[in-house]
Amino acid sequence: MKILIWIGIIFLVIPLVGALIAFIFGLYVNNPSTHNATAYDSKISNQYYLRDGKVVYVLDGNFFQIGGSPIEGADPDTFNVISQSYAKDSNSVYYNGRRVEGADPSSIQLVTSGINASKEESGYLISGGKVFCYGQMIEGADAASFSYLLGSYAMDKEYLYYYTDVKFSRKAMPEAIKNANERYIRHGEQVIYQGKIISNEASRFKIINDEYAVDEQHVYSHGDVVEDMVADGFTVITPYYRKDKNQAYYFNTPIPESDPSTFKVLNDSVAKDGKHVYYNGYIVDNRTVAEVSRSDASELEKMWKWNSLHLSPTRVILVPTDDVEDITNNFYAYNNEVYSRNNKLVGVEPEDVVILDEDEKIFVRIGYQVFYYNVVVEGADPNTFTVIADRFSKDAKHVYWEVYKVVDADPLTFEYEENLYADENDAGEYYLKRWE
Q1: 90 within 8 A of 104, measured Cβ to Cβ
Q2: Is 414 a domain residue?
Q3: For residue 28, what pLDDT is reported?
Q4: Which structural domain, as residue segments, surrounds residue 388?
Q5: Which residues cross the membrane (predicted)?
Q6: What is the pLDDT of residues 360-392, one digit of tens each?
Q7: Within-domain flag for 2
Q8: What's the angle, vertex CA 338, arms to CA 335 and CA 344, rounded to 5?
């Protein structure tokens, strides 16, 4: 027993010692002195250093993985840091080690915010009567009235800005939205997300969490309207499931035939309502509501024990993994029947699936159809079809790339060469091309 205890202690200690060694090594290799470098002002920035008489830029002070890059033309004697990212010398202003064109080092003003509680650098700078955002000049911005708001939003007396290339005519004083991250800002009745107006119902706009928001009619996910979802009754049930007054959803995908009034999540994979059991948002055809309790759901969640086979794009059966044979990565055999990733192949038996490329097992023939992965190669002749190489194939009449006919390739003379592929033109036809 004592031996087992000591073995357990050893196995516990070894990872801890390894982690400690890695931590100490990281401190050593990232220490500027290890690289003969001295920070200009480490209290303001960990990105600018003096090394061997030259100014060196090191992204976030990461000497170990990134190392330092000398700033061409920077004067080490007059160089000093302004913020984490901005610096200057007697001749130039720099942002993240790059010269800021048009900036005047003798006229520098960092732009701060009156509504942003964060103390981190805004990225905005006024220099020589011009406004800069992350080192790029904002054309036409009025320096005298310019102020930073939050995130990447700023304004002057006439415009609301997002970065350097998006601006809106000012109609109201922009405001932060309660409980919202800095991708959002309110501008009168407009709600703007990452520089795009997404709603004109700001007074009814509500943040649900970092992913979701709603107004009177719509549900938004990361600023985009979620099709099919409605704001009425919208609720995030778990990280995987949501519902509104009409139906339930697995992530943002509607769960067919679901009843939101009785919908109940049992675990990350399994849910049920008064009519069906669901697995990852699909209706489970071979389980009834009455026979799936929370403990049963815990069993079904064990992916190494259970496999979900699609009967159709919306319905599956759950069967023991040991009873399923992988014919390819896209076709499976169970109970002498064949299933693809999306549906059951009626009347098809495992021996009917003929693999055409044994190495990759991407192309198969089933009856009179040829498949690339699990998509039909339309029009392909199964009797003369052969696989060439790297997604290319052919029959007696055509050369194919993936599932597409290549219009400028003759199957009688075509020879595959490395770096060859096909691309679609404006007419929807595929032509041969070569990777540059």
Answers
A1: no
A2: yes
A3: 47
A4: 377-436
A5: 7-29
A6: 999 999 999 999 999 999 999 999 999 999 899
A7: no
A8: 110
CA atoms within 13 A on the CB side of 221: 12
Dihedral sign for Cα atoms in the order 311, 314, 320, 324: positive
**Residue 167, CA distances (Å) to 146, 149, 160, 315 in order:** 13, 13, 5, 47
Secondary structure (DSSP) of 21-73 = HHHHHHHHHH-GGGGTEEES-TTT-SSEEEETTEEEE-GGG-TTTT--EE-TT
Residue 358, domain member (yes or no):
no
Amino acid letter, residue 288: T
Q: In whole angstroms, what separates CA 23 from the centre of its chain?
A: 30
pLDDT in tens, 232-287: 999 999 999 999 999 999 999 999 999 999 999 999 999 999 999 999 999 999 99
Parallel/antiparallel/unpaired status of strands 270-272 and 277-279: antiparallel
Torsion over CA: 179, 182, 183, 185 (sign):
positive
Overall domain count for the chain: 1
Owner of token pair 């040829």: 370
* Sequence-ordered list of residues with C-beta below 8 angstroms from that of 420, at least 6 positions apart, any chain: 390, 392, 432, 433, 434
Tokens of 176: 């932060």
User: Does some domain include residue 360?
Assistant: no
The neighbour count for residue 279, using CB atoms within 10 Å, is 22
Say if residues 423 and 433 touch (Cβ distance below 8 Å).
yes
Q: How far apart (Å, rounded) are the C-alpha atoms in residues 246 and 258?
A: 8
